[in-house]
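Entry 14. Ran structure prediction on the chain below.
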Amino acid sequence: MNGRASRLWQILAGISALYAVLWALPASAQQLSRYAMGPQYQVSVRGLPMNCRAYRTGQYVAIFSDPMLDDVGIASSYGNQPYIVLNPNVMARYSDLVAVWWFAHECAHHALGPMNSESNADCFAIRRMRDLGIIRRREQLIAFSQELRNLPGTAMGHLPGPLRAQHIAACALS
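Output, structure tokens:
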């Protein structure tokens, strides 16, 4: 094989390897690549400026919006970059307090570090809202809890609606 043919095979092998790497990207990387806008590091949730920082590094968490996401939101990471994806259409179904809580819940998955669980994220989110003065009155907490009562439980650790609402209310009062 002459030098020119050998070089051509090297180039083809490199392209093939690159294609294999791109094809094998984790789902989160494929998902992140479809977001035309973002990342953002501060968003407005019902008029409140919100951001999130990761437990281990203190770095800001990237925030994306995806109206095609089949959930209200997800928290994940790609490499060392933590991120949150929120579905604005699903968020729009909830009251202002619950929409802010959903953001805080997804943020909690990054903020809690080794204490991360669905119940801990629920508790962290409501306490953060309480500490920031977003929830100030008992009536707000009651309305908030009633709105969560219809949420289903999940195999990932989300409590069924009534138990989840009761757990969150107890966290807010402690």
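Helices lie at 3-23, 27-33, 88-91, 96-111, 118-131, 138-148, 161-173. Will compare against last week's run tomorrow.
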